[in-house]
Design goal:
957 residues, alpha/beta, 8-stranded mixed beta sheet, 7-stranded mixed beta sheet, 33% helix, disordered N terminus
Length: 957
């Protein structure tokens, strides 16, 4: 909303303060600045506030606002006086304002850095977390305007408001003066305030998803008057699933005398129903959706599933239609799945919701599935259905204009009915938040992701999200750092999901292989080696093996302490008459189930060829298996619905599964038609289990770094280098500036001296001391020793002059080559350390060997900043060429401890100073003792907005 013309022109309306937020109960509201046009809204709002709340606000009876009050509360300069309102349906439900004050509590202007703050929330909306959300936003506004502290006077009886301040996590002081509580809050974000903010975000977003997945009533808008069509299909699926709530059919074209459709009440509008409706499924043409949304919003519908197409996937006009849909729904406090969605399913026995177009509804199970594509959703549902897998929940979000995979990660984190989360993503709207949520969820249950549109270079149609510049390989590395199991295809996702949902996590990489085919066993053995597992020699039971032989062999393998998992290979066995028999798959499945249930809890997978009924029988759990939820050791698996969120530091699944007593082994045993698929799924489980064990003891930033880091000094240099009016495009530092800035963080760059002519080169060498290196710094020759642009170990003046002449004769004039002289560094391994800021993913720290390994082969490892000591150690060990650092082919190992310290220092620099958008140290020569940074480049830019550190808000696409 723009201000009226009389608003002071020198204080423009700050539209970037507008935000949609999710409240504690899962509903949404809009926060925006109050303008001069809000007088009537303010008066109406105040009339709906109880006398008690008014007394708490003004410390005296205050039945109505005077004209002077209304003018004061609606006229702000957006600097020293600011007011924000929370709106639902365009009407105020809460307000907050601050007034800048001096040390004596009188009105003031900058540089005064304290403000008095006051809140007022309508009684009907108290307890929804409105004041907490307002405090986050007004604090961010105040910091932007140079205010560092809030002061508030609160009556002792106003315990709710005191709790809002106390629980915010800011550093605060309290005193009791003149019958009121005086509170002072330091507005600088703290680790506690950030944790509080994210905790509230998690609970609110999880609750908003829960309201969609567990409605008490559903209305399908757009149910056809005759059989067929999208709306009628959804209604049929709702009824077929046995939805436990109330169902309504809505179509404005229904005849007045029509009472039912397919046995459910029929109405021409939501308002005509006369009862609360929690969820509406919208299946009408796009041009009629706004009317349906208004009808829903005016009558208290909590959420929408918009199946209608014709939005952002149709171009610019559709994108604007999609934005308006989101704005309209959020104005009423509703969240949206879609548009262009396929629907959602919740198989919980207490809900049994199938509000989707799925032709084959999945059976109940422990897998949660999110997809951004209806076609992929159909394929995944069909694949899981054929393999006997069940789902807890399914969501196909279409254009995901509002509800996204991040929201469902919040929900699945503590959902007791979900043990594994599978996501097919074509875009990631907020990669920083996704990584943070995925790491948190992966600490208690597996998260498996397929990322579509990896190489297209553009956002899929319908998805309006920030575009990341980092390569897909980097995205994959960052996902794995967060514990995400990244796979390439939906088939691999189903393969991994089946094993993770039904089997305990492996305690290690040791694999036993047994079966009745030597060839199939060898294929499995080779596949294990290719995936980095440690297979034992296959046990060949011969083609004459019976189901009893399989049972005995599997029992022995599971009991063997030298094995962490078992792969069973099976082909049709040879009967007594010598003829190959497909056999009764159910008999073999029963034998394997019996052995698995009787032995220690270790993962078992089966590779089979043409054994009819085996896969289906293996997918059927027996009564002796673990109860649902214990397969991967999720702490939330057996918790009641109201239990607190699982503790990520709880014992990892593999350890608890490994210690399980006999008789509590795995249930469904996943079956695969190819050895490679089974092994790949098992390898993902092994890597995930290892990550989870490590995540239970997270790394840290060593304290010794603080003694050698001058953060304030670096900040001063950055301000000086950027200047008072920095170029928004940023600037690259000179070599001297980069050396000075890096030195503040204990990073020493070996100096170089310019050599515009041979005499200057000789003078430079005299200053630095022989031996020296002569190298060009022209961009096309930088770090290209293979092109002859670098001459090393020049021991004296004669050698230097000779090299200078050869360099200029071969490559060009000195003015083109820009040669420099540098003292020689101790011999070692040339490496490269980089840190870059990606607009979508955030700060990324990278490492690799200099030259061909990183540039040609892409052998580079990546971690998100801030990096811990564990991240640094893993970073240098995760590249394929890492053996070169650790004594390959008899060479002496280099000083990796110094290299890890350098990585941590670079990480600290870019984390402490968001203006540092790029750092490249190349080459970094790592010797047996110490290292030398020979080249460095740094780029600065005005700091980008950090949405992950600001007040919580829903994205505006």
């Amino acid at each position: 909303m723009q201000p009226a013309p009389e608003q002071s022109p020198h204080h423009a309306y700050p539209d970037h303060w507008e935000a949609d937020v999710v409240l504690r109960d899962g509903g949404t509201a809009r926060i925006r600045p109050i303008t001069t046009d809000d007088a009537e809204r303010l008066v109406s709002f105040y009339e709906h506030v109880s006398d008690e709340s008014k007394y708490y606000r003004f410390f005296a009876p205050y039945p109505r606002l005077s004209d002077r009050d209304v003018h004061r509360f609606t006229h702000h300069d957006y600097v020293d006086r600011v007011g924000l309102a929370v709106t639902v349906g365009g009407e105020f439900i809460a307000t907050v304002r601050y007034d800048r004050i001096d040390g004596r509590g009188r009105p003031a202007s900058a540089p005064a850095d304290e403000a008095e703050v006051a809140f007022l929330v309508q009684d009907a909306h108290q307890g929804r977390g409105v004041a907490s959300a307002l405090l986050e936003h007004i604090a961010a506004v105040a910091r932007e305007r140079g205010i560092r502290r809030f002061a508030a006077e609160v009556l002792p009886a106003n315990t709710k408001m005191i709790k809002v301040f106390r629980d915010a996590g800011y550093t605060q002081q309290r005193s009791f003066e003149d019958g009121s509580v005086h509170l002072t809050l330091d507005l600088e974000p703290t680790a506690e305030s950030l944790a509080v903010q994210r905790g509230r975000e998690h609970r609110a977003e999880a609750r908003s998803v829960q309201r969609l997945l567990a409605p008490g009533s559903v209305a399908v808008i757009g149910v056809g008057r005759t059989p067929g069509g999208v709306g009628r299909t959804v209604l049929r699926n709702l009824l077929g699933a046995g939805f436990t709530g109330r169902t309504y059919a809505v179509n404005h074209a229904f005849a007045e005398d029509r009472d039912t459709v397919d046995g459910v009440p029929a109405h021409r509008s939501i308002g005509e129903i006369g009862e609360p409706v929690d969820l509406a499924v919208v299946a009408v043409p796009a041009d009629r959706v706004p009317e349906a949304v208004e009808d829903c919003g005016e009558h208290g519908v909590q959420g929408l599933v918009v199946l209608s197409a014709g939005y952002a996937e149709w171009g610019a006009e559709g994108r604007e239609r999609q934005r308006e849909l989101v704005r309209q729904a959020r104005s009423y406090g509703m969240r949206i799945i879609g548009p262009n969605a396929f629907g959602l399913i919740n198989n919980a026995e207490t809900v049994r919701l199938n509000a989707s177009l799925a032709p084959e509804p999945p059976a109940p199970g422990r897998i949660g599935l999110f997809t951004q594509s209806g076609a992929i959703g159909i394929a995944l549902l069909s694949g899981l259905y054929r393999r006997g897998a069940g789902l807890s929940t399914f969501i196909s979000a279409g254009n995901r204009a509002d509800i996204s995979g991040n929201d469902f990660l919040q929900y699945w984190y503590e959902d007791p009915n979900t043990d594994v989360a599978l996501l097919y993503l074509e875009s990631i709207g907020n990669p920083r938040k996704f990584t943070r949520l995925a790491r948190r969820t992966a600490a208690v249950k597996p998260v498996v992701v397929v990322k579509g549109a990896r190489h297209s270079g553009s956002t899929p149609p319908g998805h309006a999200v920030p575009v990341s510049r980092i390569p897909d390989a980097t995205v994959s590395a960052l996902m794995r750092q967060a514990g995400v199991i990244r796979v390439d295809t939906v088939t691999e996702m189903v393969d991994a999901g089946l094993l993770l949902a039904d089997q305990p996590l492996p305690a290690g990489p040791r694999v036993a292989i047994l079966g009745n085919s030597e060839s199939l066993g060898l294929l499995t053995y080779d596949a294990c080696l290719a995936e980095g597992l440690r297979p034992r020699p296959p046990l060949d039971l011969t083609t004459a093996a019976t189901p009893q032989d399989f049972r005995d062999a599997l029992g022995r393998a599971l009991a063997d302490e030298g094995c962490d998992s078992v792969i069973v290979t099976a082909i049709p066995w040879v009967g007594e008459d010598g003829e190959a028999e497909a056999g009764d798959g159910e008999v073999l499945a029963a034998a394997l189930h019996t052995a698995a249930a009787a032995g220690p809890a270790k993962p078992v997978a089966v590779v089979h060829v043409e054994i009819g009924g085996l896969a289906e029988a293996l997918a059927a759990a027996t009564s002796t298996v673990t109860q649902p939820g214990t397969a991967t050791g999720s702490p939330s698996a057996t918790a009641p619905t109201t239990a607190p969120a699982p503790d990520p530091a709880a014992p990892a699944g593999p350890d608890r599964g490994h210690d399980s007593a006999p008789g509590t082994g795995p249930g469904r045993i996943p079956a695969y038609p190819a050895a490679e698929r089974a092994v790949r799924a098992l390898a993902e489980a092994v890597r995930y289990a290892q990550w989870r064990r490590q995540a239970a003891l997270p790394g840290k930033v060593p304290e010794f770094l603080d003694d050698t880091i001058d953060g304030p000094g670096a900040a001063g240099l950055i301000d000086t280098f950027l200047g008072p009016d920095p170029d928004p495009r940023g600037r690259s530092l000179t070599h001297a500036e980069a050396r000075e800035l890096l030195g503040r963080y204990g990073i020493t760059v070996r100096p170089t001296l310019p050599a515009p002519d041979p005499d200057a080169a000789v003078a430079a060498a005299a200053r630095l001391g022989y031996p020296v290196a002569l190298k060009t710094t022209a961009p096309h020759l930088r770090h290209r020793a293979d092109l002859g642009g670098v001459r090393l170990d020049l021991a004296n003046e004669a050698a230097l002059r000779r090299a200078y002449g050869e360099l200029t004769d071969l490559l060009g004039k000195p003015v083109e080559l820009q040669p420099v002289v540098q003292a020689m560094a101790p011999r070692g391994v040339d490496t490269v350390v980089r840190a870059t800021i990606d607009p979508a993913a955030g700060a990324v720290l990278s490492f690799g060997l200099a030259g061909a390994p990183s540039e040609l082969l892409g052998d580079t490892a990546h971690r998100l900043v801030p990096a811990t000591d564990r991240d640094a150690a893993e970073l240098i060990r995760s590249i394929r060429a890492a053996p070169v650092l650790f004594g390959w082919r008899g060479a002496a190992p280099v000083d990796t401890a110094s290299l890890e310290e350098l990585l941590l220092r670079v990480s600290r620099l870019v984390d402490d100073h968001p203006e540092v958008v790029s750092v490249a140290l190349e080459p970094v020569v790592v010797a047996t003792q110490g290292l030398t940074v020979l080249g460095a480049s740094v780029r600065l830019s005005p700091p980008p907005a950090r949405t992950d550190l600001g007040p919580r808000r829903l994205p505006n696409y």
